[in-house]
Design a protein that fits this description.
By secondary structure, this protein is an alpha+beta fold. The chain folds into two domains: 31-213, 3-Layer(aba) Sandwich (Protein Transport Mog1p, Chain A); 219-362, 3-Layer(aba) Sandwich (Protein Transport Mog1p, Chain A), CATH 3.40.1000.10. Helix content is 24%, strand content 34%. The chain is built from eight helices and 19 strands. It has a seven-stranded antiparallel β-sheet, sandwiched between helices. The chain starts with 15 loop residues before the first helix and ends with a strand.
């Protein structure tokens, strides 16, 4: 199964513009293996189904009047490790794998990604453009997404864009909705609606309009909500946590726009996978990460990682070395630790990397 969690060369995640790319990929990847048991629809059928739902529940879209949903504070649920509280749709519960909510019946999800305020400008430019321009922007980042509409939506006194479309993954058509908020931080909300879910566009809008923003949590507070634990070893420090499922570490906790400095990423998958050959999956997962498609894999062998049996995949490309530690958990989710950087620089910090790797554990 093609599970892509952190896309575009892992190294450029350090720069704000490429952090946006990683976030975009996170926003498009929240699928779960059991959803493959659901009936699949063609793109045309999916559009027709969504149009029918919208006609039944919403006046046409010139579209969304400036109406604030009448949400009782008692209905608001705070998303741990974020600044966001909202009233989730019926049957959606807090996810234990990422920041957001999941419907355990059909595995539809609401994924919340919070970034520094500086990321807002670039994302806002993308999400306020035309459907064709947004589709092209995702395509440039290796993400196949068919954006159909961009409309205005009012959240209190704030007006923002609601982007909707579809994404096909292994023959399954997913309805997608995105909206972006920026105050003290940048918040990207992504709805992954698994057909034939009964979550209408009106329900999506009502959920968005229920949002309340609080003060952004610290990096340490966000890390405390990850589905795994780890220990930092000098000179590495945390410099970002993404979507409640991934943590990024670099020497001295500072981003390196050149991408040459060592980078450690520990991530939990947003969805479960069904794997018959763990070794092959480990190699495939690494090579599906853009920037490492053509790497030379030098080792792919069993290793102890994250409290159990996993795989270590090592690869090189020119002066760059990449290590991937992977463990698939009994429930089908996986944890992976990826290290990349200049080969010489990595050698100098290898004891710290090994210390971090050996400390990774599934959160109880």
């Amino acid at each position: 199964m093609k599970e892509k969690i952190l896309k575009k060369s892992l190294r450029p995640l350090l720069a704000t513009s490429v952090t946006v790319l990683a976030v975009a990929q996170l926003a498009t990847s929240a699928l779960s293996a059991p959803t493959l048991l659901s009936p699949t629809l063609s793109s045309a059928e999916a559009r027709q189904q969504r149009a029918s739902k919208q006609q039944a529940s919403q006046p046409s879209a010139a579209r969304y009047p400036a109406i604030k949903a009448d949400t009782d504070d008692a209905d608001l649920v705070m998303v741990p490790g974020t600044s966001v509280s909202l009233s989730p749709p019926p049957d959606f519960i807090l996810s234990e794998q990422f920041s957001g909510f999941v419907n355990p019946d059909d595995f539809s999800s609401i994924v919340l990604t919070e970034m520094p305020q500086a990321a807002y400008g670039e994302l806002a430019d993308i999400f306020s453009s035309s459907p064709e321009a947004i589709t092209a922007a995702f395509a440039e980042r290796g993400i196949t997404l068919d954006v159909e509409t961009v409309s205005d939506i009012q959240i209190g006194e704030i007006q923002t864009s609601l982007v909707s479309g579809t994404q096909q993954v292994d023959g399954l058509v997913i309805d997608k909705y995105f909206t972006l908020l920026g105050e003290e931080s940048t918040v990207l909300l992504t709805f992954n609606v698994i057909a034939p879910s009964q979550l209408s566009e009106a329900d999506v809008i009502q959920t968005i309009q229920s949002i309340e923003l609080n003060s952004p949590p610290s990096v340490e507070e966000k890390a405390a909500e990850l589905p795994f634990t780890f220990e930092v070893a000098e000179p590495f420090q945390i410099f970002d946590v993404l979507a409640g499922s991934a943590v990024l570490l670099s020497p001295n906790g500072e981003p390196d726009p050149s991408g040459e400095a060592p980078l450690v990423i520990i991530a939990s998958s947003l969805s479960a996978v069904v794997v018959s050959d763990q070794a092959a999956f480990a190699a495939q997962l690494l090579q599906q990460t853009d920037g490492f498609v053509d790497v030379n894999i030098t080792d792919n062998s069993p290793v102890t990682f994250a409290d159990g049996e996993g795989y270590l995949t090592q690869a090189t490309r020119q002066d760059t070395t990449v290590f991937q530690y992977l463990r698939i958990l009994p429930d089908g989710y996986y944890i992976r630790l990826v290290v990349t950087g200049n080969s010489t620089d990595l050698d100098a910090v290898m004891p710290a990397i090994q210390s971090i790797q050996s400390s990774v554990s599934v959160r109880e």
